[in-house]
Amino acid sequence: MEEYVGKLWHRLVTRAAGGHYPEAAVKLKDIDRVAGVFFRALGGDPGLRLAAATADAHGARRSFLSRLAGSDERIPRARMDESTLRLPIMLDVLPERSLNRELYLWLAALAAAQHEQEFAQLDQAARERLRSAHAALFGNEDPAALDAGTLELRHNQLATLCTLLRWPGLQARYQRLLAAVLAVRPDPARLPQVEGERERLICQAMREPGSVRQLPPLPAKGMPHQPVQLWLGAFSASPELILASGQGAEAESNAEFRPDDKEDQRQAHRVERVQDEPEKHGLTLATTIENILSVAEFIKVKRSTDDEPDDNAADAAASMEQLALMRNEERIASKVRFDLDLPSAAEDDVVLGEGIPLPEWDYRKQLLREDHVRLQELRAAASDPRAAPCPLPEPLRRTARHLHRQFAALQPGRRWLKGRVDGTELDVDAVVRAATDRATGQHPSDQLYLSLEKRERDLSCLALADLSLSTDAWISSEARIIDVIRDSLLLFGEALMATGDRFALCGFSSVKRSNVRFHRLKDFEQRFDDSARGRIMAIKPGYYTRLGAAIRHASNILEKQATGRRVLLILSDGKPNDLDLYDGRYGIEDTRVAVIEARSKGIIPFCVTIDREGASYLPHLFGPGGYAVIRDPAELPARLPLFYAQITR
Amino acid sequence: MTSAIPFYQAAGNEIEIFEHAWKNRLPLLIKGPTGCGKTRFVAYMAARLGLPLHTVACHDDLTAADLVGRHLIGDGKTVWCDGPLTRAVREGGICYLDEVVEARKDTTVVLHPLADDRRLLPIDRTGELLEAPPGFMLVVSYNPGYQNLLKGMKPSTRQRFVSLRFDFPRPEQEQAILIGETDCPPDLAKRLVAIASALRALKDRDLEEAASTRLLIYAALLVKDGLDPVEACRVGIIESLTDDIEVAEGLMEVVAATFGR
Q1: Contact assessment for residue A296 and residue A320, using Cβ atoms and an 8 Å cutoff
Q2: Are the Cβ atoms of A105 and B171 closer than 8 angstroms?
Q3: Dist. CA A392–CA A113, nearest whole Å
């Protein structure tokens, strides 16, 4: 009851405080795809990820009611860093839905505006205009020496100008947004003197971008201005800044932190890089210029997800305003090399047969070592409760239905086959040819009929998934790589069922050369039914990646398929490696030879990887057209079937 | 064959290369994305050199017999009827095989001896062996944009050709093409090209194929005929590029940002 009343009061007083128009709200999740396409089309960096923005404390003056309601203390602001474009999770600051939507798109356009290529697209007059604005704003000052507020003021004016010059069609939209934003900003005349002057200048900067160089400094007790909704809180560093501070190289590692992606509550965190200083212990205070009123504490408690995924970590993170990322000397658990315990015989999957001997290529001796590797075929025990038959998981069903429809179109319908011995219609071409052959004294063919037949695609495909321990890594707080691979296999099966292509699904891992573990999840002869799905649901990560042996075995299976074309599709998350010398060059060279062998058997190998560095070694293994890198692992389940459709069309 | 030379705006030295290949009796392969001007280039070169042009649009059911020819029955006797390739070899001129990778594999049997220095076309049905006259040139084209494991040119075929890569023209050139092709106002051409270059940045990410010059010409023609520019871009460009509603919506925002709505 108390809780209910509390909620009601909160809603009431928040409403009374004003500044929000809930009925006009536009949510990021409703517009993120449109905004993403728009951002990239306008020249935004396609490598940037679109995500929800952090709510930042701004410290600006608030009305009595809004202070009472506790609303707006922290406002999410659009901002950019090297790897992400962050937009507010919801916009309801303008009174009309269409305006809030346009505001999202404007922010996306603004974020796209600061690229050199865009500059090159401008005509001469616009370039001059922009150059003079840049000179007027920055002059010879070193941007690195400016404080964040001034930098924001100048950068946004420049970006606004650039966007409007490059896309003159946005002018009308900008004017509409400007009028709406100005209407909800405080009246300068009612603010204390300096603050009023600052507010007036900010409005001028919005009206005539490029005209305001600096705001007068705040007096000691003054309050900062309201955040400008038309501007970005921060731009990813401009090229000369990146070069100057040498931060460019770090952009990549920044991307590895992925915040909670849960639909509505997804919240983002500001991440701060912290130097790990072993001699200092205890508490470090971290403040940034934007966070004048906030103090975030940094306590040296490391939450490393690799040892044990800690459910509480997500909760703990949600309540923090700022997270600290640290680089230290220790390596993460999965990189440590030690021999792993194999599951006890009772626990393990059923071993099928004695162990299959396979050769391996030793590049140092340039020699194929016969019977060097033993491969075990495994299948989940029928009695294993983890691999019990189960239907397709609910979250995948919608995508599966969609794929069914798409792939049914790929299936060739019935068509007339020419030159048949038997059929329902005469093949006029063939009959004429036979008549001419007879007339010219040659032996005429007896294949004179057309028949309407369902033509199969005459294609078999074996999908081979990497189940090594590296797939145990978390890509978001909900999914590990193995989960993504599992979903991919499930959806891939659904899609191939619709095409009517023959297919098998397999997985592999290895512990040295004596024990390459090859899981047969679905054979060519088996139906893709609930028991096959159950086996896929039961896959678990373990051990290492002896890719060469797995490819050899898979090609031996594929070779027996009596179809015209045979595709070996490999799903991987990294380089081949194993405990013994199967690492680095040795593993790569052996895999390369295995791929070449597969090709010589008439098999078409193709590798889909989520390893971002894949492009550095995959051309060597699979040839220039033989692989694809998917940058965002979460996209793999949906992309893989489409990819298959594309490469086999 | 019309005597008028069709409009063509050169993007580089392709005209010169074509003429060198022609003089030296070398076959030519043109690769490039759809709608970037491959077919128009060949038509232009045929007119420029005053050669007859035999175009064959290849499809997945096109056999060697469709290229070479077949017997027909007429008047109580059989009549041999030349296919387009044979006709081109007999008469001289350019034989242009559009989207050659689509054709059946058995077509390579007739293309190989014709494309290398032998320049021969054997017709097994009639027992003829035609030698291509100096006035004959083989030109093929295909679109390497799609990564496809099953269709592709075999290296042995590919290495019989002089190869030209086509891409979308630079913005100024593309504007000139739009103006030359549709006689539209320069401002419209500029805006359409701006849309196209924005959309081309989305290839392989949000779009399967980049917006072609051909689509821009469609849009320009529609606008010139009185259709609202935003609507013309929707039907002429955006909807032809994607079926995804959200992507289309995002692309329409680019159009709106160009024409100002």
Answers
A1: yes
A2: no
A3: 44
Residue B68 touches chain A, beta carbons under 8 Å = no
Q: How far apart are CA A406 and CA A401, in angstroms?
A: 9
Q: Which amino acid is at B207?
A: L
Residue-wise pLDDT tens digits, A459-492: 889 999 999 888 888 877 778 888 888 988 998 8
The shortest CB-CB distance from A172 to any of B151, B254, B260 is to B260
Checking if the pLDDT of A198 tops 80, the result is: yes
State the burial class of residue B63 (Cβ atoms within 10 Å of its Cβ: 0-12, 13-18, 19+): middle
Contacts of B70 in chain A (CB under 8 A): 429, 432-433
The pLDDT of residue B235 is above 90: yes
Residues A421 and A512 sit within 8 Å (Cβ to Cβ): no
Tens of pLDDT, residues B152-169: 778 888 899 999 999 899
Q: What tokens does B111 get? A: 């293309």
What does the alpha-carbon distance between residue A313 and residue A258 come to, in Å, rounded to a whole number?
13
Whether pLDDT at A173 is above 80: yes
pTM to 2 decimal places: 0.64
Note the residue count of chain B.
261
Query: Number of helices (H) and strands (E), helices first, in chain B?
Result: 12, 9
Chain-chain contact of A429 with B260 (C-beta, under 8 angstroms) = no
Q: Mark yes or no for CB contact A432/B70 under 8 Å.
A: yes
Q: Look at residues A375, A410, A112 and name the one whose alpha carbon lies nearest to residue A235.
A: A112
Does the structure show a pLDDT above 90 at A372? no
Q: Does B105 reach chain A within 8 Å, measured CB to CB?
A: no
| Rounded (10°) CA dihedral B181, B186, B189, B194 | 150
Q: How many CB atoms lie within 10 A of CB B49?
A: 16
Confidence of residue B180 (pLDDT cuts 50, 70, 90): very high
Distance CA A323, CA A330 (A): 20
Q: Which residues of A touch B198 (CB under 8 A)?
A: 41-43
The answer to whether the CB atoms of A625 and B197 lie below 8 A apart is no
ipTM over 0.85: no
C-alpha B213/C-alpha B211 separation (Å) is 7
Q: What distance in Å separates the CA atoms of residue A30 and residue A28, rounded to the nearest whole number?
A: 5
Write the pLDDT tens digit of every residue in B4-23.
789 998 888 999 999 999 99
Alpha-carbon gap, residue B217 to B199, rounded angstroms:
15
Q: Is the predicted pLDDT of residue A363 greater than 80, yes or no?
A: yes
Looking at this protein, which amino acid is placed at residue A207? R
Q: Are A491 and A641 in contact (CB under 8 A)?
A: yes
Interface of A with B (CB under 8 A): 33-38, 40-43, 46, 105, 109, 121, 167-173, 429, 432-433, 435-436, 439-440, 565, 567, 604, 606, 625, 628, 646-649
Instruction: Identify the pLDDT of residue A147.
Output: 81
